[in-house]
Amino acid sequence: MRSSNPVFSRRGFSRDNGYAGFNAAPQAGGPAVGTQGNPYAQQGGNPYAQNPYAQQGLQHGAPPQAPVTTGRMTMDDVVVRSAMTLGTVVVGAVLAWTLLPVSSTSYNLAIGSGLIAMVLALVQSFKRTATPALIIAYAAFEGIFLGVISEMYNAVWHGAPFQAVLGTMAVAGATLLVYKAGWIRVTARYARIGITIAIAFVAVMAVNLLLVVFGVAPDGGLRSSGPLGAIVGILAILIGAFFLTLDFKQIEDGITYGAPKEEAWLAAFGLTMTLVWIYVEMLRLVAIFSGRD
Predict the structure, then answer these.
(1) Exposure string for 184-205, b = 16+ CB within 10 A, e = fewer
(2) The model scores a pTM over 0.85
(3) What CA–CA distances, in Å, run from 272 to 139, 169, 216, 259, 291?
(4) pLDDT tens track for 58-106
(5) More exposed terminus of the chain, fewer Cβ within 10 Å: N or C?
(6) The Cα angle at residue 74 between residues 71 and 78, in degrees rounded to 5
(7) What's the CA gap between 260 and 94, in Å, rounded?
(8) Shortest CA distance to 73 belongs to which of 43, 98, 105?
(9) At 47, is the secondary structure helix, strand, or coil?
């Protein structure tokens, strides 16, 4: 699992080398949004360039006007693409759960599917444009992985996957509510601090995995089923919620600046990866608390 959402950190809704969205977003009462500071102005993506009244309104602190050009990303585009990617994950998971019995063969298939999904995600992350077929393929293999793993968890902790789904929905809904209410301000400093914490977390988890593989920590180390494992799981879910706020911010900025419609696939891809992260960690956490009953 990477330290940040690679879709947004690698390219995202920006054409510059900085962290997208945090230096370009229009501020209330700030200067007019023209070609300066707009990452899409070079490609004719400035939604305000053809509307002289939009700039005048922004100079007086008015909210951004709707894009007057066509072929730009909208919230509907993001919702539709996200439904397609998440729907593919769900279909893949249901088929894997239904058709593959719990066995070592299924486990090996899940590991293989997870590795393929990771490779596809990395390939898409380093591409400059979205490839819908690649994104859907990633979602399909991720679904197979989640389906087999969820079935195995359910065999030991009955109902754990259902509780994990509810928990993931609760975290996503609460994060969106907090973000829209303005209780969290996604700034460059906020992003730097959160990503630094995430990098440290991933590094520590990688070391912990090596210790487990080589038998130094046979009980799972930081990923044990005890209180320490529960604390690590909660921290991982909080990191997932942090990345959701970055996702929301990038999508909001992309729509504001008139990102190309194809960018909606990248938004859906990033949201899917973040939600998968939260679900897997939620599944671990439910299993830990179920095992302590």
Answers:
(1) bebeeebbeebbeebeebbeeb
(2) no
(3) 8, 13, 34, 20, 28
(4) 444 445 544 445 689 999 999 999 999 999 999 999 999 999 888 888 8
(5) C
(6) 115
(7) 33
(8) 43
(9) coil
